[in-house]
Structure formats: structure tokens, C-alpha cells
Amino acid sequence: MRAATSCPVLLCADSAVGADVRAALEQAGLQVTLAPALDREPVNGSAPRLILIDGAAETDGALKLCHRLRSRFDDPFVPILFLAAGDAAGLRRASLECGADSFLPRPFEPVDLVAHARALLRLKDRHDQLTAKASETHRINKRLQAAYQLIDQELELARRVQESFLPQTLPQLANVRLAARYRLCGRVGGDFYDVFRLDEHHLGMYVADAMGHGVAASLLTIFVKTSVQPKDIDGQSYRLVPPNEVLERLNRAMIGQALSETPFITMAYALFNWQTGMLSFARAGHPYPLYLPREGPPTLWQIEGSLLGVFDTRYQVQTHELQPGDKVLLYTDGMDGASFAAHPVGLPSLLAAAEQYRRLPIDELVGRLSSDVFGQTRQTDDLTVLGLEML
Hints:
Elements lengths: L8 E4 L6 H9 L4 E4 L14 E5 L4 H14 L7 E6 L2 H10 L4 E5 L3 H55 L11 E8 L7 E7 L4 E9 L4 H13 L3 E4 L2 E4 L2 H14 L8 E9 L4 E7 L5 E3 L6 E2 L17 E4 L5 E5 L15 H11 L4 H11 L10 E8 L1
Parallel strand pairs: 1-2, 1-3, 3-4, 4-5
Antiparallel strand pairs: 6-17, 7-8, 8-11, 9-10, 11-12, 12-15, 13-14, 13-16, 16-17
Helix pairs in contact: 1-4, 4-5, 7-8
């Protein structure tokens, strides 16, 4: 018996009985290896591309061999053509049940045998091509999974870094309460805020929004965080920088980076004296602060101010005196997706919700605004709400 290491066709047949089969195939240009023993598996090397089993001399042994070979060559798949003489219908059924892929009764025309063989070889070629594509797809998927896992790890690291730049606690003051809610629509985002004591009487605070809500936006938030200069210190003395000047310095710092793509950042910055209740603020393309007086309708504090990082410009300052019971909200444009009750989406819903919840303590008010206004819609942008209340 010869080992079939690379033969296209393996013929399992008695040498005398299978001579016509071999002659027909070789005349058609196919390479044939003969394995004359039907009582044991004939293949010791690599799989052939086609197996022909001739059961003309010993049908039962040929059927048993067919069953064994199908078990062995189901993966990788090798087509099997079964030849036999006798009851064609019965033998066809028996051979197919034993794992043959096609059946050809004896006697046959050589052209029919060659046509069957070539059809099964085409099937083998197509199967191998699909198997190769499936293997390549599997390898690509594994590489993609590894890449996605790496991206996921980097996003998680970016999220932790970004959160570390947010205030872990808010200042505790005798006559003022502060509250904040920070909700990202992804792992990292472009929203950020800060509240900090500047001296015994003043707080600095801001809410800002970098374009987008991915890694690039989160990197901009870190740059802005480190670039805000709320106080000038000269020896033993210091100067609190007015809100408009804070924005102007930050704007020049961003322009000085000369980034290839202009980063768009909006910000509302406020300087608050909690003893006198005086609050000064400036805005750079940011949503207007929402003022909730103890008595009277909610009001938007409107003031001009262009985006940060686009061109050198000046910013205006607006000052208000807060009375006990007054509240002020700074928020990002994630509120554009606010939906409350039957009110139109956006600012009308925000104003309606603020009006309904205005009597709540500031922490409850901010919490209800950041949750209830998105109860009927999916959050598509980052959302930050920072609230201040005079007690």
C-alpha cells in the first residue's frame, strides 16, 4: 500500500477491479494513488483531495471503509465518490448513509466518472476556500478583540484620569450650599467643572464643555483644568482674577497651542463672594446661567461671549447680588436634549422642570434636573449641572 501524501485522488479498490477507474481518471489528467485493501484505512499521510471507493468486488467492506473514512475526513472535509454494481437505488442510499457524497453505479461511462470526480474536486476547492476565509476571519477577529481590549483599557485609564481632575468634594460653607451632577454618555467625555475656595470670602467655579465626548475631548478638559488661573500671587499678596480675564487668558493659551484642528470649548466662569452674595461671571459660548430667585420666575442671565480657542477676543462681566433663598445653575449643552412632561425638548423643558423643583434644596433640585429631564429620551451628550444656593 502506498501512502497518499499529496495525491489529488485516492482510489480504494482491488487493483484488477479498479483498473478501468484508474485508467479513466489518469487519461483525464488526474493523479491517482491506489489503495487496494478495503479492510483497513488506506491513508497514512496528508488527506487526498478526493476519495473513490469501488465496492464492486466487496460491497460490505467498501461501505464499512466509507463510514470509517468519513469519520476521519469530516474535518478537514474530503469528498467521497462511491462506486458499486447491483441495486443502484439501494446502494446509493446505503453509501450516502455511510458518508459518501455521491454515488455512481457500475457499469458507467468514463466521461460520467470524470464529470463526477471533477465536480467533487470543485466542491473540495470551494470548501477549502471558504475554510481558509473563515480561518482568516477568525484570526482577524482575534486581533480585533485584542485591539478592542487595549482600547477599552486605555479608555478606562482615561476615565480615571479625567475623574481625578474633578472635585472630589465641594466646599462646605455656613450660608451656601453647592451641588453637582456629572453624567457622561460614554466612557470619557468633554464636560468638566470645578469649585474651589480662593480666600476667606470667595469661591471660584466653572462649568465647561469641550467639543465631542471622546478621548480627544477628555484631553482638552485636562489642558483647560491646568490652564485656568483664578488668582495672581505676588509675594505675600494676591489678586483674584476677574471672570472675564480668566477666560481671556485661557483663550490665549489655547490659541498659543496652534493645534492643527481648532478645539471648540465653551465655559461659564463665576467668582462668588459668599459673605456679600455678589456673584460675577463671564461666559464663552456657553449656555446662559439659570437664575432661580426665591420669588419670581426663572431667568437666564444673558451675556455675550465667543468660544474659547478660536480667535483673540475680550469677554464681558456681569454681576448680580444673590439673596437668601436664591439659586443659580450652571450647566452644559447636554440640557439641549432635556425632555420634561409635555414641554418641547430643550430649554422649555429645562425651565419647566426648574420651575417645578425650585423649592427643593439645591442638591435635590440638581439631582431631579439631571435625571427627570432625561426620563423619556436617551442621553446623547455629556451632561453637567452645578448648582449654588444662598441659605
